[in-house]
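Q: Convert this sequence to structure tokens.
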Amino acid sequence: MRFIGIFIAIALGAFAAPEVLQLPSIDLRINAPENPTQLVQTLNVIIILTLLVLAPSLVMMMTSFTRLLIVFGFLRQAMGTQQTPPNQILISMALILTFFIMEPTMRQAWSEGVEPYMNEEIGYAEAFERSIAPFEDFMLRNTREKDLALFLRIRGEDNIASEADITLPILLPAFMISELKTAFEIGFLLYLPFLVIDMVVSSVLMAMGMMMLPPIMISLPFKIILFIMVDGWNLIVGSVTQSFR
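A:
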């Protein structure tokens, strides 16, 4: 009670003497820069805010996140565990593995593009080209030639001399559909062992005349114990991680 009384006294004193309170001033005016350094700082803030807004899309478009998340979703559906693990867990796991897989690429982009720009050694254009080059190499390694040829043909640029001539607007959609196809192929392979268990359980229940008993109630424990016995998470995470070239 003593501390409560002291707190109330301080609060009342603050309201009783409003001239003591110093509220921060907020200036929303847009003024012309007084020197080039001030302009560069303003542009830096704008670029950082733009990257923060586009960060979720860039993570999905230019990294391993898409393949990982789709594979984990297929695994949950194949096991029939409904919302276990929940979406938050699957997304967090996909993000962590994405940072693990992309760490060499991000480190190269930082050392070759971002760091020299922050040290004022290169300009905006060169910094962007150096920073995006490692991601382009990663996407090229994991993109099928057929998918690249599709978007090159749509653009009418199917007579390129080398991979260095492939632009980012063509590489991004080609990489995305390649990732989707690879993820669906892995998902199909994940379904097979669990599908066999469902078929065996359904056949046994039908032979026993237990038509009203849902097969999923019997097959789910067998799926879980099979997944545990083969150390499923270790196999799946290891295989999907190593599938990136």
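Residues 189 and 225 are 19 Å apart (CA to CA).
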